[in-house]
Amino acid sequence: MHILTTQAQMQQAAHDLRRQSRRIGFVPTMGNLHEGHLSLIRLARQHADTVIVSIFVNPTQFGPTEDYAAYPRTLDADLAICRREGVHLIYHPPVTEIYPPDASVTLAETSLAQTLCGAARPGHFNGVCTVVAILFNTIRPHLAVFGQKDAQQLRIIRRMVRDLAYPIQILASPTIREPDGLALSSRNRHLTPPQRAQATVLHRALTLAQANFAAGQRDPRQLENDMRQLIQQAPDARIDYISIVDDQTLAPLTAPITRPALAALAVWIGQPRLIDNTTLTP
Asked: Which of 37, 124, 142, 203 is catalytic?
């Protein structure tokens, strides 16, 4: 497994791989890898000859009140995991390699990013789109894998690939969960034992929405209210948003649901902010 740290190295490696007719699968990460990331790597391995993983904590997707410096850096453990999973190449650049000191160009998605986490974290998806575009341009993958847990991000990246004509296939990997339903996240490790027990309320709320929907409830406001009432029973829960939106446009739904919808929520359990989602299909 090779570890590259500069754009020049990475671009040369990508050029050589393409000359060898190798199909490149790419998994972008910020490190601190867990089983959810491994599912992305394994899916990439199924569809590509060469798997490249980036490990880069992207400063531009952190807001002014979000602690970029505190994000866990676990490079040695991440490299061991990638080696074990058969990753061929790691791209681990310093910040100055991605963003020169006088960098002045960014990308902005102006439709899908207006709701959910885009509304709660202004500028977040501008940072995501910018860094992913830079990584795509550097690595030139044939395909890239993103998780369905970050449903809004997945849709925004697909829109970016379409609108900017990237010849890249975007694969979606299902959300990986603990046995009690909690979606795997790097933030879970910051939960205290009592908070960890309470955190299952996110999945339970989505399961309730699915059950009510299957029983015939089509009023998005009622579905949201039912989820809210359940989550509020957790003493350390503080709701950022609970929203049912159109599955494609991510626009909030107010009329009875007649087409696929996305039930999405973001909830603080103590300090960690957790997200989860599920689809509701008539």
From this structure: 37
